[in-house]
Amino acid sequence: MTTDVTIIGAGLGGLALARVLHVHGIPATVYEAESSPAARSQGGMLDIHDYNGQLALEAAGLMDEFRALILEGRQAIRVLDPDGNLLFDKADDGTGGRPEVQRGELRQMLLDSLPDGTVRWGRKVTAARTLGEGRHEVTFADGGTVVTGLLVGADGAWSRVRPLLSDAVPAYIGKSVVETYLFDADTRHPAAAKTVGGGSMFALKQGRELFAHREKGDTLHAYVGIAEPLDWFAAIDFDDADAAKARIAREFDGWAPELTALITTSDVAPILRPLHALPHRHRWDRVPGVTLLGDAAHLSAPNGEGANLAMLDGAELGKAIAAHPGDIETALTVYEQAMFPRSAEAAEAEDAAPDNPALEDVVNFFSGGGENP
């Protein structure tokens, strides 16, 4: 393998690629806009599926390290109606196939598995351009540049690499999620803690949903789903935490107080997360020396597969490169021909879900696991 590999983005997918390449003795450099691994919170928990995410970790040779991160009991599921009535309750018997881990710990595990210097922090990409003959130039915010024989965009929804391959841009899906956190929940928020239980809890009605799970350290992390246009959210002052919590909670008037407490008693200001997606079956014609993985390639509405697919993308791309030394174009063709239908199938499963799901639909989704938004 003589072609230099440049990966943009030190998320789970980009790091999985770098790790699998390292396992096969192929060096790579990862450029990341964040200044350090601790520059921002890495989000909540992820359930890592035995049919995609865990396959990536096996290819990376990290299953033992992964198992050490698993939070026992977190595959438990509770479904409630808006009145707080328990509709479904499933304990975690350890056989679910989708164990939960903290996203930040999983990312750190991948970082620790790479040689020192693999990730270059504080390198925000502003542009990328084709030089011809499969080579590309990447420009950074500090004015620096790098030229590479293989450029991989693992840089998420608003990828700076994607325009080399596609004109597609993410579009708002008509729904946003507002995140809240309740700390020391068993002591300080006992009603909400009892309602969520030891794993995940879900309650919904048309256009409104509450999802929460129990993280490490007795923390409840909630995702409040509201189907409204962006202008609706723009009218809320999220800098005024109390006012924002009150406004969001009004959308759940009449719901059981132990449910709305996940909004009103949040120990942090509510965090708005608008949801976007690329077109279903997003793909591109082969362009020499460049490809995409994860959300840069197939951003979709939260469907339980995003991080898992990103890691599998990275692992499969790494394996393809290792299997075709000296023939990058064959490697990229093999990778993309498998990645396109894999990601389309996951997105279409979400698209087929009913707008107003019945209890059976909710149970089926959560019994199969669902990556948290």
TrEMBL record:
Domain FAD-binding, chain residue ranges per copy: 3-324
Organism: Streptomyces daliensis
Domain comment in the entry: Consists of an N-terminal FAD-binding domain with a Rossman fold and a C-terminal substrate-binding domain.
Top-level taxonomic group: Bacteria
Top-level taxonomy: Bacteria, Bacillati, Actinomycetota, Actinomycetes, Kitasatosporales
Catalytic activity: a tetracycline + NADPH + O2 + H(+) = an 11a-hydroxytetracycline + NADP(+) + H2O
Binding-site list for NADPH: R40
The protein's Enzyme Commission number: 1.14.13.-
Subunit structure: Monomer.
Cofactor(s) needed: FAD
Protein name: Flavin-dependent monooxygenase
Family listed: Belongs to the aromatic-ring hydroxylase family. TetX subfamily.
Transmembrane segment boundaries: none
Positions bound to FAD: D47, R103, D295
A biological process from GO: response to antibiotic
Subcellular location(s) of the protein: Cytoplasm
Pfam families: FAD_binding_3
UniProt xrefs under SUPFAM superfamilies: FAD/NAD(P)-binding domain (SSF51905)
Top class in the EC scheme: oxidoreductase
